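Per reviewer request, we include the raw input and output of the structure prediction for the construct analysed in the revised manuscript.
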Amino acid sequence: MPIHDLDCLSVARRRKTLCTVYAVRACERETWVALAGEAAVSFAQSCGFVARAGQLVLVPGPEGKVQALFGLPEKKTTPRDPFIFGKLAQDLPVGDWAVQAPDDVVRDDVILGFCLGAYRYSLKTEEPGEQPRLVVTAAERKGLAAQMARAICFARDLINTPANLLGPSELAREAKTALRPLGAEVEVLKGTALDEAYPLLAHVGNGSQRGPRVVVARWHGTHAGKDAPLVSLVGKGVCFDSGGYDIKPSSGMLRMKKDMGGAATVLALAYLVMAQDLPVRLELRLGCVENSVSGHAMRPLDVIRSRSGLTVEIGNTDAEGRLVLSDLLYEAGESAPDLLVDVATLTGAARVALGPDLPALFCNNDSTAMLFAEAAEHEADPLWRLPLWQGYAGWLKSTVADLNNIASRPMAGAVTAALFLEHFVKPDQRWVHIDSYAWNDSSRPGRPEGGDTPGIRALFRVIRSLCGTNRTQKS
């Protein structure tokens, strides 16, 4: 599928007929009048407009043109929220709209929020209707906010695509198609080569008629020297998860096309890093599989020797995501990256603890965790740290293998899943594991129902912050 062209953005041209949205706050009525005129403000108030955050009203403008007033949150009362501008893309009439906002509003938030609000996914045969367009400069159309929107919309498309249309081979092909034009070296492994290099992943994926694939991509920025920071990204790409022999109930399978949301997130992140030509070296690994029920599927109590040499007992075939990630994490560590990040729709326990909007973050380094926390706060892209609590490590013991893939107790499932992954990460390796939902259960401004990539903006900010660091600084 192509990277989005962002038809919702219109480059400003002379003599072009424009309508204007004035973004205002409730406490600043004088500003409303200065911008739109007393008559327009009186009309807006007669319609019930009070500049509540996200409230939009159309009002008459000069020379018979339409203009609009749009409510902003009060200063310092709410965190930065680019998604609020998604409502403009949803509710404005068709046409070219300029947004005039106070100086403290980040322009990139307007662009990003509008683009994400304009996103639609549909396989209907009818042509979609026209949408309003945001007027931007030529530079803004190529800038970071627009590139971020393209990356997020690309990931949303991948997650929303039905599983019959996006299996392991298709996901791998999409990665190759997206990254090679940006200069990445992309290798797709399958068959015997995959079985030998990634035995745990193969044990999950070989149960499906649609065989597993592993994508390994390598790239370095045009301004990245030999000592540029090396960032390694790993994504869980389970294109559909039946649960295997420990089969899910039908209700549990309804959204399992999204179980490759981690792979979609890191793929979109890699695309963005490359498109922005950050001065870093980058490695990307995607484990693309389907967890099926068949005569070739893994069985409960199977024991497999991993790439690292550790043996793993399959306590539950529905805990497959950690098996997909383990061999990839171990291989990624062989390059000694400055930062190793994996993203996965890994556990329901993380959603019970934090709900759908807060990805759980696990990290083996406090300063690195703080870096992610600061980035998440700055970008209004929340991540919530949970502990790698070593007191639960013994819950993963097996009587016949080095590890069991599930804990012996039905508690702290997100923590024990992260502890399992930690066995495949070197102790001195800076590592971050993000357990994400990758889905919106209902539509909100800028976040339509369906696939999504929470955390991607914070992740990009962290990677960008590494560009001036020295590779030897691991602590």
